[in-house]
Amino acid sequence: MPELDVSGRDRPLSVVDRIKEYILLNQLAPGSPLPTEKELSEQLSVSRSGIREAMKTLSALDIVEVRHGYGTYVGQMGLTAMVQSLAFRGMLNAGSDHHVLADLIDVRQLIETSLAETIIDSLSPQAALTMRRLTTTMEEKADRGEDFRAEDRQFHLILMQTTGNALAVELTGAFWDVHAVASHSLGPNTDLHETARAHIAILDAIERGDAEQFRTAIRDHYVPVRARMVENQERP
């Protein structure tokens, strides 16, 4: 096994870092088993209680998965912890400002517009058909005054899945979930038809192969929520 740096005091944070270093140096993949608590304690020169406390922290971050009765494994390292943290931060700030939501919108827009050419070049006919059906459902629900969060989320996930960038897909799903929570502070969406049309414009631009029009449609898509944020901040 590669030599580890075990210098420093036996503090929970340092133990967390040592276990992460162990995973990296041994090139363990998600799902790989970790040594037992006793073995890690010996290899890292850390008390078993220190290992135990560090595992609680790492488990909360989805870096490790503790399977009671079976052992401890490298986790899937999803973005659950980040989503929960951002969502809670958004709810805490809901009464005073909308910086979290504004930042999320900026990041979502940046990711989508920066991948315009990749999306246009890679979108399959089947994916385009699925997205067209989603926009049809959006319009139908808008006519009935119903929100269409599920269709909206799936539409944007398909955009990212088209790129083949797994991290972009996961980030989009995570940011969308936080966006959905944080936007509750703005009240009900009264721009359903405008939002549905924006998704149609995005898909139309892709099918025309027009990257610049795609970027414009993406920016237009976020105009209604930005306007609602401004209106909400101007209220006494």
Automatic annotation (TrEMBL):
SUPFAM superfamilies (alphabetical): GntR ligand-binding domain-like, Winged helix' DNA-binding domain
Molecular-function GO terms, alphabetical: DNA binding; DNA-binding transcription factor activity
CDD domains the record matches: WHTH_GntR
Coiled coil feature spans: none
Keyword Metal-binding: no
Domain HTH gntR-type, residue spans: 9-77
Keywords on record: DNA-binding, Transcription, Transcription regulation
InterPro entries reported for this sequence: GntR_C, TF_FadR/GntR_C, Tscrpt_reg_HTH_GntR, WH-like_DNA-bd_sf, WH_DNA-bd_sf
PANTHER family for the chain: TRANSCRIPTIONAL REGULATOR, GNTR FAMILY (PTHR43537), UXU OPERON TRANSCRIPTIONAL REGULATOR (PTHR43537:SF5)
Name of protein: FadR family transcriptional regulator
